[in-house]
Amino acid sequence: MNICVVGTGYVGLVTGACLADLGNRVICVDRDAVKVGKLRNGVVPIYEPGLEDVVNRNVAAGRLEFTTCLRYGADNSDIIFIAVGTPSLPDGDVDLSWVKAAAEEIGHCITGYRIIVNKSTVPVGTQKMVTEIIRESLSGDCDFDVVSNPEFLREGSAVYDTMHADRVVVGADSKRAAEVMAELYKPLGCPVMITDPESAEMIKYASNAFLATKITFINEIANLCERLGGDVAEVARGMGLDSRISGKCLRAGIGFGGSCFPKDTRGMVMMGKKAGYSFEILNSVIKVNDRQKLKPVEKLKDALEDPDGSTVGILGLAFKPGTDDMREAPSIDIIKAVQGLGGRVKAYDPAAMPNAEKVLEDVRFCSNPYEALEGADAALLLTEWEEFRRLDLNKVKGLMRRPVFIDGRNVFDAGRMTGLGFRYYCVGRRDCGCCRHY
Ligand SMILES: NC(=O)c1ccc[n+]([C@@H]2O[C@H](COP(=O)([O-])OP(=O)(O)OC[C@H]3O[C@@H](n4cnc5c(N)ncnc54)[C@H](O)[C@@H]3O)[C@@H](O)[C@H]2O)c1
């Protein structure tokens, strides 16, 4: 099939490249000329495992191209995906201005039947709104359908997730459009759930809100374990063996961040508010998550007493491993809080430092983890990159001024760390410095 993807970010680029890999002809459109220029020169502007290979392979095969011209994409496609950003507004509501602008432009461009697919995460009712905008923007008489097709990929494994999707959800009120979408996704071999647009839109928010709640729940259990005893990793293992619960998204840590869970939980609360409903569980999830992000700073204060004038080495800045995305990464709030206490910050991340430089001030970015920890009074591990699991911990201890290690992701074994002479803090596990302190 001939496909146009409007918005060539994490979702649009991965979707476009993977659909091309399935044999479709794909035109990726972005209004960011710098991004399009890079892609045309073979440079993939985001860090995502395996993506560069898929992009290069399909560009070489003539199935994938990049442009800033939506009219060119619209003229040469049967299906037009909208995959633009939907960030939070200051009050937590969803900013739909990019979706509206894309819909209007599509309306101006199309001249024959097209299926417009909304892949951006958008509140219930947006399919109807997009249909209206396109109808009002049409320059002539032209038939079209708008379907909702939310995206469930995870950054860090986006290509794998797309090619091995658990399910595809298509919300359509047109049988014709639903059949084309089912055909498009058939090669993935996963269930394609056809439903109404409102349910499809709700499925995306409900899924993200549920996962954010699950993460927050295990973080609360970790906080209780720190006071009462018990090891949250063992608790999660035991809970996860129950097939009704499953062990996924059940790792205690420093709270969720990233470009989706924070904004989508806020967006869902706002959706409820506008409908006269207070979504109490999600209000608490947001509050507890904001508190959880600052737990490492409490532990830092416990370990150093007065962090003023201390040097803190940060391992990991991205909101999760496998990505360079810094959007709402917990590291941002943590670093600002450490600086607020008078701490000097050195940091290392294998992929996210170029993006981190844009959002953090007065941080010394280092070329490897050892440089970040040299002379440090405390280490804060904030992202569980594989690289950190292989650290030479004896070398680390020798380099640090004080052997305080705050592991926000439970990467290391508490017994081993204390055996090596570290004052080791983790999240809700036995034998670590933090238990029964908070
Ligand atoms: N990032 C994720 O992990 C993820 C996962 C699932 C769903 N989503 C959802 O997918 C959507 C996109 O997210 P993202 O992370 O890919 O965003 P992104 O910011 O990485 O990319 C959006 C792109 O759209 C472009 N754009 C905006 N308006 C445009 C227009 N009118 N014409 C052409 N290009 C335009 C921007 O220049 C940018 O490159 C959001 O709604 C998000 O919630 C994201």
Describe the structure in your own words.
The protein is α/β, with parallel strands linked by helices and 438 residues long. It has two domains: 2-195, Rossmann fold (3-Layer(aba) Sandwich), CATH 3.40.50.720; 199-438, NAD(P)-binding Rossmann-like Domain (Rossmann fold), CATH 3.40.50.720. It has helices spanning 10-21, 33-40, 51-60, 70-75, 97-109, 126-137, 158-163, 175-185, 197-228, 232-240, 261-274, 280-293, 295-304, 330-340, 353-359, 369-373, 386-389, 393-399, 414-419, and strands at 2-6, 25-29, 64-67, 79-82, 114-118, 144-148, 168-171, 192-195, 311-315, 344-348, 363-365, 378-381, 404-407, 423-425. Strand 5, helix 6 (126-137) and strand 6 form a beta-alpha-beta unit. Helix 9 (197-228) crosses helix 11 (261-274), helix 9 (197-228) crosses helix 12 and helix 11 packs antiparallel against helix 12. The longest helix is centred in the middle third of the chain and has 32 residues, at 197-228. The radius of gyration is 23 Å and the shape is globular. The model has no long low-confidence stretch (mean pLDDT 96). It binds nicotinamide-adenine-dinucleotide. Residues 6-12, 29-32, 35, 83-86, 98, 101-102, 105, 120-121, 151, 153, 155, 259-260 line the site of nicotinamide-adenine-dinucleotide.
In a few lines, what is going on in this structure?
With 438 residues, the chain is α/β, with parallel strands linked by helices.
